[in-house]
UniProtKB/TrEMBL annotation:
This is GTP 3',8-cyclase. PANTHER family: MOLYBDENUM COFACTOR BIOSYNTHESIS PROTEIN 1, MOLYBDOPTERIN COFACTOR SYNTHESIS PROTEIN A. PROSITE patterns: MOAA_NIFB_PQQE, RADICAL_SAM. One of its GO terms (biological process) is Mo-molybdopterin cofactor biosynthetic process. Residues 7-260 form the Radical SAM core domain. InterPro entries: Aldolase_TIM (IPR013785), Elp3/MiaA/NifB-like_rSAM (IPR006638), MoaA_NifB_PqqE_Fe-S-bd_CS (IPR000385), MoaA_twitch (IPR010505), MoCo_biosynth_MoaA/MoaC (IPR050105), rSAM (IPR007197), rSAM_sf (IPR058240). It comes from the Eukaryota.
Amino acid sequence: MRRHLSKFFHCPIGINLSNSFPQLKCDVGSNCAASSTRQALFGGHWNECATRALATASCASVSEDLPKDNSVSDMLVDSFGRLHTYLRISLTERCNLRCQYCMPAEGGEPTVRKDIEDICLELSNLKGLRTLSMTTNGIALTRKLPRLKDCGLTALNISVDTLVPAKFEFMTRRKGHEKVMNSINAAIDLGFNPVKVNCVVMRGFNDDEICDFVELTREKPIDIRFIEFMPFDGNVWNVKKLVPYSEMLDTVMKQFPSLKRVQDHPTDTAKNFTIDGHEGRVSFITSMTEHFCAGCNRLRLLADGNFKVCLFGPSEVSLRDPLRCGAEDHELREIIGAAVKKKKASHAGMFDIAKTANRPMIHIGG
C-alpha cells in the first residue's frame, strides 16, 4: 500500500480513518499519484474486496509546502483555485452501530476491519505523512488503541451524540455508550491531544445536552465539535430537526460567556472557540447554515472505488473500473483532474440537497 500511495502524495500529508472512513490527514491528504493507489487499494489481496473493504480514511496536507511546479498539484486545483490536499478513503461500509441519522438499517466503522492496525502501519510509513487520523464510533476502540498508536495513529475523532446511555441505545439501536466514553478517556490517557468528539445535534433529541458536552472540555483536552444535522438518503432529514449554528452558539454563550473565537485555518471545516479556564475547546461544523466551501480541500474515495469531489454532490467517477482495466498513472491523473476541475464553487442549499439523490452517509464516510 505504502509504495503505491507514495506515488500520489509528493508533499507532506495527513491521514484520518473514520466511521465509514479511517482519515489520510489517508481523516487521506491529497497529493495522490495513480499507480500507488491502484496497487495500494486494488492490487493484491485488495483486488477482490475493494468494493466493500475500504472503511473511511482521510489525508490532509499543507498547501504552502507544495512545489509550485508540481504537476500532481496542478491536477488537484479546481477551476476556483482550490488546492485539494485532503483525501478521505472509505475502508468499509460495515458498522457495529445502526445510527438512525446515518443509515436506515445497515452499516462503516474502521475498527471492524481485522487488519486496521496493518493498514495504519502501512499508511504511517508514507513519505511526508504528517497526520494519521481516525474517525470512529469508539465501540471497539479502547482495546485496539495502544496498538494503533504504535502503528502510527496520531489523531482521533470519536463520534457520540448523547451523554445519556438510554438515548444512545435508542439512536444507535445498540448498547455501548460506556465503551465509547471509555475510549475517549483511553485516548486522553495515551496522549492524544486534542481528542475530537463529534456530536450531530438534533432538535428534540440531544439539543438539551449541548452545555453538558461543553463541560467535557473543562478539565480534559477534548475538542467537542457540534455538527449541524445534514440530509442524506435514508436518514429522514427534516429541517425541523436542524439546530442551526447561531442557536447552538447562543446556547453555549449563555452558560459560558467567556467563549471566544480563535483564528481558523482557511481549510478548516469547523468554527473553533475557547473558553477561559477550559483545557479543551468547542467547535461548530456549519455545513447547512454557513457553508465553508470556499476553503474546501477535500476529496473522497468511496468503498466501491468511486471518486467524489463533494460530500453533498451526487456526481461520482469510477477509479475502480479504469484500474481493473489496467489504466496507466497518467490516465488516472486525467480522470482525477477532470473530476476536480468540475467541482462547483459551493454545494446546493440544504433544501435542494434534501431533494437530491445522494448516497446514505454510511456509503460516503463523512
